[in-house]
Amino acid sequence: MPGEVLKTAVLEINEKEEGQDPVYLKIRDLVYQTCGIYHSEEKLYLLVAACKRRMADSGGRANTGREYMELLANTTRREVEIRALLNEITIGETCLFRSQAQLNALHNVILPELAAERSKIGLKKLKIWSAGCSTGEEPYTLAMFLMEEKEKLLKDWAFEIQATDLNDRSVETARAGIYGDYALRNTPELYKRKYFTPDEGGKLKVRDELKSHILFTRLNLNDDSRMVFMKGMDLIFCCNVLIYFDMTSKRRVVQHFYANLLPNGCFFLGQAESLFQVNDQFRLVHLPGTTVYRKPGAETGKVGKL
Amino acid sequence: MTIGLRDGLKKRVERLRSLPSSPAVLQPLLDLLRSPSDQIDLKKVVQLVSYDKSIAAQCLRIANSPLYGRARETESIHAAVLSLGIQRVEDILLTCCLHKFSSGAKWATDSGAFWRHSLGCAVVCRELAERIRYPDPDKAYLAGLLHDLGILVNSLAYPEEYGKVLAVATEKGIPLAEQEMHELGFTHCESGSILGNMWQLPRAVNEVIAHHHDVSKAPGDNPLVALVHVGDMLCRLRGLGYGYEEWRGVDLAADPAWGDLSKLCPQLSKMDMARFTMDLDAFVPRVQALVEAVFAPNLKHGEVEQHH
After folding, report:
1. Backbone region of residue B286 per phi and psi (left: phi > 0; alpha: psi in -120 to 50; beta: other values)
2. Any CB–CB contact under 8 A between A280 and chain B?
3. Considering CB atoms only, which of B247, B278, B282 is closest to A288?
4. Which helix (H) or strand (E) holds B78?
5. How far is residue A226 CA from its own chain's centroid?
6. What is residue B306's predicted lDDT score, i.e. its pLDDT?
């Protein structure tokens, strides 16, 4: 509806202006300190919008940015409120093909290098873990991406994706693999035709052939006894999940990821997250438009060529 | 580089000096850049900026960009110098002079990409300098602005060959310097430092021009070389590169430049680089918009410009 569009546009402008309010910079820093998700200046309006939605829902506890900051910082409700805010921040974030920069980096830099290295030892298999896969958008994206790679660079290679989430219902939805327009907004037509079949209500369903590459299971990242069995990974994706963890458990979980990666394996976070002060064994590698954390190679203790 | 090659290059750079578009204020400005900053007369700077109308207008537009930290809109050069400081205005003036200097000539490359990279690198170097408490952020800006002077030289002095260099580098997604070495036998570091010497740029800046791709050859007492090396790398990986995507991964912490810089600026090792890169992404559209707004009438994508 045009009226709606206009309203959204106006709201966005207002939020961009209110982003100038220094209290939102404080909220930004608080969010970054507690969960490691960072809103650069150009993304600040998204945070402002999320705060606004929370304020509207706060039952009058907070009506201004300042009051909301109080609610987040100094009340007994603070932990509940931060979690609710994080939910607002990450809402609508999930869709297939969310981060093209990550896929480009994989295609152009990481996979060619990894493929060359693994074939040296005669291992033509890739193991990938989508940790915190939510309703399956990420693992299906990776599966489609790798199917395409199999036609060129990864000919005769096998790949296996482990997709885990804490939430039973998410895992069920992920297994079903049925998506609507919104989740598919970034998915190229070619991929829709190749990897999906039409389903009820105009939705699309992932083909079984694609599903066969993915193993969906429920897993609690805090469950040490299960974490130690996720060994031998080439790539681990954990996007916008660690933001819900406190520093201590974040460090422990990331340590597991580190241990489960093969040498020169790569760890991917969400675009706004960093491992600063969480882990200093990973090496931060800069790639066009994105960054990735890499486990150093076995012999040299140094990062592979890349 | 062989002696023959160097002589040939020198001759071509000599010819560049006499470009008809070379602005009259360039030489006095370069002289000014060499004098100690506490001896610079405010009046003189205002005079220089105001000398050339088109340059003055561009300077004001740049000075009013949020990237340059203006507190409020300035309408006069005098106010700009007062609010931004002499050194920053000198830098802005130099940007505009360089632009004018090169705008009358044929460009082998996309001149817009060059300006976005140069201005972007300047801004990023200044920001990085501030965060790691390098004592002279404006100097870092100047060094970032001029570090790729040699691309301008190569583009103007070797238009044909350089077009090829850029095309191949773009296709392969490799660093420009690599292909320059392959095709020309020298890189923009060498050609840039020849022009830098002729212009008698400050020593520290000239060292940056000459060594920003190979920090190991730089004298150890100049942190600017490593600083610009890092800033340049970040720009090239975050959408402010040479106008094409370089397909590679860079582990900055394993780079010798990083070690050099951390020794000279210990603050660097405490820096949250992931977060810095995210902040950097916010610069990109601004730098693009600024270059578009200031230089747009003279910029065309990959096309040869002509107005004599």
Report:
1. alpha
2. no
3. B247
4. helix B77-84
5. 21
6. 39
Q: Where are the domains of chain A?
A: 2-90, 100-294
| Partner A, chain B 145-184, Cβ-Cβ below 8 Å | 173
Closest CA to B143 of B63, B227, B17: B227
CB contact under 8 A, A285 and B237: no
How do residues A135-160 score in pLDDT, each as one tens digit? Answer: 999 999 999 999 999 999 999 999 99
Q: Is A142 exposed, middle or buried (0-12, 13-18, 19+ CB in 10 A)?
A: buried
Provide the whole-model pTM.
0.86
Interface test with B, best of A114, A268, A286 (most B CBs within 10 A): A286
Q: What is the DSSP letter of B148?
A: T
Q: Where does residue A228 fall: left (phi above 0), alpha (psi -120 to 50 degrees), or beta otherwise?
A: alpha
What are φ and ψ of residue A217, in 5° steps?
-145, 160
List of chain A residues whose C-beta atoms are within 8 Å of the C-beta of residue B253: 283-284
Q: What is the pLDDT of residue B305?
A: 38
User: Looking at A34-48, A120-134, A185-199, B198-212, which range is the least confident one?
Assistant: A34-48
Quick check: A109 and B253 CB within 8 A?
A: no
Chain A hits for B245, CB-CB cut-off 8 Å, are 108, 288
**Token pair listed for B97:** 């002079």
| Minimal C-alpha gap between A134 and chain B (Å) | 25
Q: Is A239 on the interface with B (CB under 8 A)?
A: no
ipTM metric: 0.86
For the segment A242-256, the average pLDDT, to the nearest whole number, is: 92
Domain locations in chain B?
1-19+107-293, 23-104
Q: Between B265 and A12, where is the model more confident? A: B265
* A145-162 residues labelled b (16+ CB within 10 A) or e (exposed): bbbbbeeeebeebebbbb
Judged against a pLDDT cut of 50, whether residue B302 lies above it is answered with no
Report d(CA A243, CA A250) in Å as an integer.
Answer: 8
CA dist list (Å): B93 to B27, B64, B241: 12, 13, 23
C-alpha span between A91 and B252 (Å, rounded): 33
Answer whether B273 touches A (CB < 8 Å). Answer: yes
**A306 shares contact with chain B (CB less than 8 Å):** yes
Is A100-294 in CATH node 3.40.50.150? yes
CATH superfamily name and code, B1-19+107-293 = Hypothetical protein af1432 (1.10.3210.10)
Angstrom distances, CA of residue A100 to CA of A14, A35, A106, B35: 29, 24, 10, 49
With a cut of 60, say whether residue B213 has pLDDT above it.
Answer: yes
How would you classify the pairing of strands A214-218 and A158-165? parallel
The alpha-carbon gap from A15 to the nearest alpha carbon of chain B, in Å, equals 17
* Interface A-B: count of C-beta contacts within 8 A: 79
Rounded Cα distance, A163 and B43, in Å: 67
Contacts of B277 in chain A (CB under 8 A): 286, 291
For B254-296, write each residue's pLDDT tens digit. 999 999 899 989 999 889 999 999 989 888 888 988 888 888 7
Query: Is the Cβ pair A38, B245 closer than 8 Å?
Result: no
The confidence score (pLDDT) of residue B300 equals 44
